[in-house]
């Protein structure tokens, strides 16, 4: 007995609570996220596995800057990407950004330790995507065997009320150019 992607999708949809956010149900029909798309309703984790943060609920009703990195503690992420957002956090928030979020396919303890090392408290929320569910739903995952396999491509986005307003994905998925903090156009 074989099931089609459509029948599986219908079955999954029956168990999902209705939200204003999108839900990607299968990788077979998934397309990369684009400007104008609603975020998927996916739980990420902050500080520990006990502290779930639904990204769709977090971004509802406000402007959020979200950036994703291939891995916590990696050189490009630690020396350039994260520090740029830390340096620009106060300006972004004074310009109307409600939250700044860093996402990585790591466990929540690693993200908490990385955030503590860089003094992100009160500036940037460090959210873990341990199984890569969020980046897979966005179709922004990549396979990097030297870093453990499934990882996030490096990207940044501006989100308004759970809808992607701006999206910057590094052309090779890992470089440091268009996804940097000073490249975002988050002002209205």
TrEMBL record:
This is Peroxiredoxin-5. Signal peptide: none annotated. Its EC number is 1.11.1.24. Keywords: Antioxidant, Oxidoreductase, Peroxidase, Redox-active center. It comes from Papilio polytes. GO terms for biological process: cell redox homeostasis; cellular response to oxidative stress; hydrogen peroxide catabolic process. It comes from the Eukaryota. The active site is at residue 77.
């Amino acid at each position: 007995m074989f099931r089609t992607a459509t029948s599986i999708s219908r079955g999954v949809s029956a168990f999902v609570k209705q939200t204003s956010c999108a839900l990607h149900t299968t990788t077979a029909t998934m397309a990369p996220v684009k400007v104008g798309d609603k975020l998927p309703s996916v739980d990420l984790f902050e500080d520990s596995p006990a502290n779930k943060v639904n990204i769709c609920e977090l971004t509802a009703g406000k402007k959020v800057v979200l950036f994703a990195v291939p891995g916590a503690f990696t050189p490009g992420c630690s020396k350039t990407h994260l520090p740029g957002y830390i340096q620009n956090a106060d300006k972004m928030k004074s310009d109307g950004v409600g939250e700044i979020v860093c996402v990585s396919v790591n466990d929540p303890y690693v993200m908490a330790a990385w955030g503590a090392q860089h003094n992100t408290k009160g500036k940037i929320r460090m959210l873990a995507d341990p199984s890569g569910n969020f980046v897979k739903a966005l179709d922004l995952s990549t396979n990097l065997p030297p870093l453990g396999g499934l990882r996030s491509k490096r990207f940044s986005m501006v989100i308004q009320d759970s809808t992607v307003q701006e999206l910057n994905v590094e052309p090779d998925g890992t470089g440091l150019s268009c996804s940097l903090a000073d490249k975002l156009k988050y002002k209205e």
